[in-house]
UniProtKB/TrEMBL annotation:
Residues 1-18 form the signal peptide. Pathway: Glycan metabolism; cellulose degradation. It comes from Clathrospora elynae. Residues 21-49 are annotated as: Disordered. This is beta-glucosidase. PANTHER family: BETA-GLUCOSIDASE (PTHR42715), BETA-GLUCOSIDASE A-RELATED (PTHR42715:SF29). Gene3D superfamilies: Glycoside hydrolase family 3 C-terminal domain, Glycoside hydrolase, family 3, N-terminal domain, Immunoglobulins.
Length: 876
């Protein structure tokens, strides 16, 4: 659409910005019939909030949850849903207990790569690193081991894995916490991680739902240079939502994720945690999510509006950290008593929380034995309130032998980008020279910066809440020294990137130079080297390009190792003849050095492939992040106009040749692809789900007399602690809300608990089960034609053929281990979902009549084998 229409559309939004309590809170797109990607960029109201019915494999958990919740009083149900406030208890988030039933309060703890704020835990490779292994077994095992560690510390909900951000722009600060900007790679990784975590008996919290693609302005807040700025709004159309950003969430739900975290940002100008379209219609309706939605920390901005729009748990429970006030707690109690929220909605929230609890077997859990805020053995159990002195840290070592697989996983996730034949090294090189701050220890120790918000020494995780403390960090320099000295060789190092004289003196002597460089990013509440969470650029940090140049201009055997949160620009050095090898090692976790040495010295044959594209400038990736307000104090409008064209799809569309493409990675052996076979599998026609739900169950009675909900006389309240009780029998007084009783017109249907029509694209957790019907089975022969064993990540891409479709989309992969001279069969199934597009009009998946092609590929640009897909009757 022309620029002027754009402007009008978004000006209108600015003016119509809804009050926080407004449950409609919706942005309607202009009546635009063009194929603009932002057509249908709206969040229409959808009520009532769907109640869980125990569908899919949730039946047993649902029955148990209903039985449990049926015994609860209103105050006890409120307790289950409301956090007790920031730093009020041992975990980063804790809801109220149910002492009457000896039910311990549920503990939510970061992070997606290990137990945050605890000792004697493992630091696993980051999500964006393990994605490079393209290995389902690794995804599952890492999830399982992280789950075991959380469980042994007494955690009920691990706040991970991450598929939002997906990685729309590589500068996004938290991309590394997630997996890949490709929805299918992310979807498979998140599903296996969820299964792993939950098989270990801990509830996974898949986050951040949704389109939390940048750190700048993610929350409404005050920014030093700009004053108050409202939360950024990610404006997106329905088709892109389904085909890109929602895809991995659907996989997580299908895998049984017990909880989902709603994000800080707005979508189509509606705060996600009160966006009825996204929570009621999409998550709980279409995707049949049976677990509970919890808010990101202070991402809730309303009481009744968020309750009716499907939020089930508020975290950490207070309106702002330690305000002592809550949108829920007493307000939730009141909203039931004054009839604004129907009881079934609270019952449903409680049942969802308890269903997740039983679904993963939390009823056999152990109490929390650590404290997030203090490492002392004895201290206050209510850290903020400074009361309840007791044993708080039992210092339980929960690591088991996870270090072994952490090392192996990190090696499997390492990507060999260039090799002129020098790798693997024999270890008997005459003089090994190691360069770079990124090779060695931090001057401050491995955990020297709070939440890892600093870059000094080798980089093995990003910064922010998505971190854990290292039990130790094996640096590349440690591991290389041990290797070379063990062989009686010479190994020296310079870890100051600016010590030019020493660097040059050493480079001229070296038989092999190993240069370690990095690029970091993290969560927006910490700024490192001027980067407020999001990266300011894609170049290597700490003058790494100069370091590489200084070494490689004097040494014709320079190997570069990159530790980074995502793509970095390699233009200045990648094609130099003196750069004999390049490795991307991501953020490998505690065994970093051992893992890279395993690859460099050939104990492991590299098999990782890039989970993103490395281009030659930031603009090639599409729209930039928004770093400055664009709308005064109102929400910056982030229009996802590029639609589904991010990462390799953007490069393909613009016909830009990347330096290293998505899916690319070398091995010390070589592979040959042959003999593609496509077999059509009989499957019936697609039947949209129909029929009606049951009526909303109401579990138990409650008194409407406010006198029954008053503070117990004998209860001492730790400072700012959130309880469900009222401090007055007058509800207006108890609410302490200046807007109490304001005549909001709640949307029609919001309180309707009668049976509701089922959603055609829904029907089970993840969506209509027929979307997973297999329509084709694809096979190919992969031969290792080298001389050593190796592993090859074979990829399956599809071309859906339509004028609005990407050139190709990833739809499957397998990592095959093949002996030299041997062949293996690659197999992948193509499901109905894989060949479908989202149709906005019918609100369902449809198979277009465009000609479809399947590719068995070594990367997104090496589409080695091709075959047509005869959709026949399946197509519309
Ligand atoms: C919400 O939408 C309904 C119609 O769906 C309308 O009647 C009501 O006034 C709206 N409420 C607010 C607060 O805008
Ligand atoms: C947009 O479409 C709606 C529904 O079709 C109609 O009621 C409304 O008048 C249209 N608005 C404009 C500005 O054309
Ligand atoms: C609610 O939770 C708090 C904190 O765990 C607890 O002290 C209180 O007794 C609980 N209230 C009820 C009614 O169970
Ligand atoms: C109830 O919620 C309102 C905001 O909607 C808040 O101002 C008030 O402090 C809350 N009351 C309590 C008792 O926390
Ligand atoms: C790391 O910290 C030490 C000690 O403060 C400092 O000398 C060094 O320059 C730092 N390195 C980098 C790369 O910032
Ligand atoms: C990019 O950011 C890094 C980290 O802050 C900085 O070291 C580097 O100088 C920046 N690069 C450019 C080209 O500005
Ligand atoms: C490569 O290294 C040699 C020293 O071995 C040096 O003479 C030459 O200039 C270097 N070439 C480049 C392109 O840096
Ligand atoms: C580097 O230069 C030396 C001396 O000219 C030569 O012997 C050696 O083969 C070169 N190494 C590489 C990797 O090109
Ligand atoms: C507080 O009083 C209630 C009701 O009398 C009683 O059930 C409860 O055990 C008391 N709690 C404490 C901590 O004394
Ligand atoms: C009911 O209680 C809630 C929570 O305090 C409040 O926000 C809402 O305005 C109240 N509604 C009415 C109609 O009094």
């Amino acid at each position: 659409m022309p620029a002027s229409v754009w402007l009008q559309a978004f000006l209108a939004v600015g003016l119509a910005r809804a009050q926080t309590q407004n449950p409609n809170n919706t942005y309607s797109a202009p009546n635009d019939t063009s194929s603009s990607p932002l057509n249908n960029a709206e969040s229409p109201p959808y009520y009532p909030s769907p109640w869980t019915e125990g569908s899919g494999d949730w039946a047993q958990a649902y029955v148990q949850a209903k039985a449990f919740v049926s015994q609860l009083t209103l105050l006890e149900k409120v307790n289950l849903t409301t956090g007790t406030g920031w730093q009020s208890e041992a975990c980063v988030g804790t809801v109220g207990a149910i002492p009457r039933l000896n039910f311990d309060p549920l503990c939510m703890q970061d992070s997606p790569l290990g137990v945050r704020f605890a000792d004697y835990v493992s630091a696993f490779p980051a999500g964006g690193t393990i994605a490079a292994s393209w290995d389902r077994g690794e995804f599952y095992r890492r999830g399982y081991q992280m789950g075991q560690e959380h469980r042994a510390k007494g955690v009920d909900v691990q706040l991970g894995p991450v598929v939002g951000p997906l990685g729309r722009n590589p500068k996004g600060g938290r991309n590394w916490e997630g997996f890949s900007p490709d929805p299918v790679l992310s979807g498979i990784a998140v599903a296996d991680t969820v299964r792993g975590i939950q098989d270990a008996g801990v509830i996974a919290c898949t986050k951040h739902f949704i389109m939390n693609e940048q750190e700048h302005f993610r929350q409404p807040g005050d920014f030093e240079d700009f004053g108050f700025v409202d939360a950024v709004s990610s404006n997106i159309d329905d088709k892109t939502l389904h085909e890109l950003y929602l895809w991995p969430f659907a996989d997580a739900i299908r895998a049984g994720t017990g909880s989902i975290m709603c994000s800080y940002n707005k979508v189509n100008n509606s705060q996600v945690c009160q966006n009825s379209y996204l929570q009621n219609y999409i998550l709980k309706g279409e995707l049949g999510f049976q677990g509970f939605i919890m808010s990101d920390w202070d991402a809730q901005h309303s009481g009744v509006a968020s309750t009716l729009a499907g939020l089930d748990m508020t975290m950490p429970g207070d309106t702002d950290f330690n305000s002592g006030q809550s949108f829920w707690g007493p307000n939730l109690t009141i909203s039931i008593l004054n009839g604004t929220v129907p009881e079934w909605r609270l019952d449903d929230a409680a049942v969802r929380i308890m269903a997740a609890y039983y679904y993963v077997g939390r009823d056999e859990s152990i109490p929390v034995n650590f404290d997030s805020w203090q490492r002392d053995t004895y201290g206050y159990s209510h850290y903020f309130g400074k009361t309840g002195y007791r044993l708080i840290n039992q210092h339980v070592d929960v690591r088991g032998d996870h270090f072994r697989s952490i090392r192996h996983t990190a090696a499997k996730s390492t990507v060999l980008l260039k090799n002129s034949g020098v790798l693997p090294l024999s270890g008997t090189e005459k003089w090994t020279a190691v360069f770079g701050n990124d090779a060695g220890d931090s001057a401050y120790g491995p955990n020297g910066f709070p939440d890892h918000g600093g870059n000094n020494g080798t980089l093995a995780m990003g910064w922010g809440s998505g971190t854990a403390d290292f039990p130790y960090l094996v640096t590349p320099l440690d591991a290389i020294k041990s290797q070379v000295s063990g062989n009686g060789g010479v190994v020296t190092s310079v870890t100051d990137n600016w010590a030019y004289t020493q660097i040059q003196a050493m480079a001229v002597q070296a038989s092999v130079a190993l240069v370690f460089v990095n690029a970091d990013s993290g969560e927006g509440y910490i700024t490192v080297d001027g980067n407020t969470g999001d990266r300011n650029n894609l170049t290597i940090w700490q003058d790494g390009d100069t370091l590489i140049k200084n070494v490689s201009s004097l040494c014709n055997n320079t190997i570069v190792v990159i530790h980074s949160v995502g793509p970095v620009l390699v233009n200045s050095f990648y094609d130099s003849p003196n750069i004999t090898a390049i490795l991307w090692a991501g953020l490998p976790g505690q065994e970093s050095g051992n893992a890279i040495a395993d690859i460099i010295y050939g104990r492991e044959n590299p098999g990782g492939k890039l989970p993103f594209t490395i281009g030659s400038n930031a603009a090639e990736y599409g729209p930039d992040l928004i770093y400055e307000p664009t709308n005064g104090h109102d929400s910056p409008q982030d229009n996802f106009e590029e639609g589904v064209f991010i990462d390799y799809r953007a490069f393909d569309k613009q016909n830009i040749t990347p330096i290293y493409e998505f899916g690319f990675g070398l091995s010390y052996t070589t592979f040959e692809y042959s003999n593609i076979k496509v077999v059509k599998v009989p499957a019936g026609a697609y039947t949209p789900t129909s029929g009606q739900t049951i009526a909303a169950p109401t579990l138990g009675n409650y008194s409407t007399d406010p006198a029954d909900y008053q503070w117990p006389a004998n209860l001492t309240r730790p400072s700012t602690y959130i309880f469900p009780y009222l401090n007055s029998t007058d509800l207006v007084t108890a609410s302490q809300d200046p807007e109490y009783g304001l005549n909001y017109t709640w949307p029609a249907g919001a309180t309707d608990g009668s049976p509701q029509a089922r959603i055609p694209a829904g029907g089970a957790p993840g969506g209509n089960p027929q979307l997973w019907d297999v329509l084709f089975s694809v096979e190919a022969t992969i031969t290792n034609n080298g001389t050593i064993p190796g592993e090859e990540v074979v990829q399956l891409y599809l071309s859906l053929g339509g004028p609005e479709d990407p050139k190709i989309v990833l739809r499957g992969f397998d990592r095959l281990s093949i002996q030299p001279g041997q062949s293996a069969t690659f197999h992948a199934d193509v499901t109905r979902r894989d060949v479908s597009n989202w149709d906005v009009a019918s609100q369902n998946w449809v198979i277009s009549s465009y000609k479809k092609t399947v590719y068995v590929a070594a990367s997104s640009r090496k589409l080695v084998l091709t075959a047509g897909l005869d959709l026949g009757d399946y197509a519309s």
